[in-house]
Design a protein that fits this description.
Blueprint lengths: L1 H18 L12 E2 L31 H11 L12 H4 L47 H10 L12 H9 L2 H10 L9 H13 L7 H8 L7 H10 L6 H4 L9 E2 L11 E2 L19 H4 L7 E2 L22 H9 L22 H12 L4 H4 L16
Parallel strand pairs: 1-2
Antiparallel strand pairs: 3-4
């Protein structure tokens, strides 16, 4: 059944692409990946948009409604920061596709981070989770970074593990929710269970009902203008090469879902910096190089999903481009230093584009906005609604 769902997605998308006159469409399904020791897919009733496959769930953290509800409350709870002023949702707000609208994230202590908060839309399909970290390939591993990282400080919980557990255990509601979510545990309230619950909530943050999806899966072009159709053809063309890095139904780098084939996470240099004329990036912002020290990894970052990109400005890993127009111009120019860049990806070669084509490409990117996802009550703050939908 799962394989059939994946094939169905490929077929439907292919038909839609052919109908629109595209020569390139969803070829990128092949860049997905599978994770071994996955939990049984029938252990949880997913509410997935049409055509999207079931995410991979690790066997040691199976999905459950109780765990998702617990994770949702923890996600919005400021008690999960050292000084009790920040929550996960402080940097990941639903109306902004779970980003924060800042060029660079700010942690609980006020420290400005070197990179922007990434969107959590469709994070369940990711093969890598941070901007330039090739080592963390499980959502549960990534969760420890904002909780206990010190460079930079995010939630600032290092050394406060026992205090955090005491805060949660003092709440009668949490005592019940942890017991419901982890009924076989002798000590339901633990750091591991906090991580497992938040990861479970984040796995249901799936976006796939944008005008683009309605065109592809239902043949409904009522909210898909001619400009977006022209932009879609340009996006997948060899001239712009946008679809090479922003591929699959997630318009991102490599992904994983049930029944997909293995592939490693991918990272690319987009020509954003060349501070010394030899391809270097600013300190603390050098991408995969920070982990490997290999010259060819300088400035290589993970391609984020373009879903809901209309509401996630500013753009790039450091928020240095403010509009979608600036992003298109950046790639058209071949990066900030043009095409002469020692370690820049060959995919950022530059291209010619007219003003109308730029507008068409932006219209297509806006067609990836899933308004229902941005306002879905399943993802909202269960403690108190604190925002106005924009």
């Amino acid at each position: 059944m799962l394989a059939g769902r994946v094939h169905a997605w490929t077929a439907i998308a292919g038909v839609a692409a052919l109908a629109s006159g595209l020569s390139v469409s969803c070829r990128s399904v092949g860049t997905a990946s599978v994770v071994e020791d996955a939990a049984p897919v029938d252990a949880y009733e997913w509410q997935l948009p049409a055509g999207l496959p079931v995410p991979v769930v690790p066997a040691d953290n199976p999905m459950s409604e109780a765990k998702v509800e617990l994770g949702r409350r923890l996600f919005y709870d400021t008690r999960l920061s050292g000084n009790q002023t920040f929550a996960c949702a402080s940097c990941h707000q639903p109306e902004l596709s779970f980003t924060d609208g800042k060029p660079r994230a700010v942690g609980a202590t006020g420290e400005v981070h070197p990179r922007a908060s990434m969107s959590l839309a469709n994070v369940a399909y990711n093969r890598a989770f941070n901007w330039g970290d090739p080592e963390k390939t499980r959502l549960e591993e990534q969760m420890l970074v904002p909780m206990f990282g010190v460079e930079p400080v995010e939630l600032g919980l290092t050394g406060m593990e026992e205090e955090l557990i005491a805060r949660l255990a003092a709440d009668e509601l949490y005592r019940r929710l942890f017991a419901d979510a982890f009924p076989d545990a002798s000590e339901p309230i633990s750091i591991d269970h906090v991580v497992a619950a938040i990861a479970s909530f984040e796995r249901i943050l799936i976006s796939g009902d944008a005008p683009y999806d309605r065109l592809v899966f239902w043949g409904d072009d009522s909210d898909f203008p001619a400009a977006a159709r022209r932009g879609m053809e340009l996006f997948f063309s060899e001239r712009t090469n946008c679809g090479r890095c922003h591929a699959t139904f997630n318009f991102s780098g490599a992904i994983a879902f049930e029944g997909s084939a293995p592939v490693k996470p991918d990272f690319h240099n987009t020509g954003l910096y060349n501070v010394d004329g030899a391809g270097s990036y600013p300190e603390r912002n050098r991408g995969v190089f920070e982990f490997t020290g290999e010259p060819e990894d300088m400035g290589r970052f993970r391609p984020p999903s373009l879903r809901n990109i209309e509401v996630t400005a500013p753009y790039m890993h450091d928020g240095s481009l403010h509009t979608l127009g600036e992003v298109v111009e950046h790639y058209a120019a071949g990066g900030r230093q043009g095409t002469d860049h020692p370690y820049k990806s060959e995919l950022v070669a530059g291209f010619e584009i007219t003003e109308r084509e730029k507008a068409d490409l932006i219209a297509f990117l806006r067609s990836l906005t899933d308004r229902d996802f941005l306002t879905d009550p399943r993802f909202s703050d269960p403690w108190e609604i604190r925002w106005e939908i924009r």
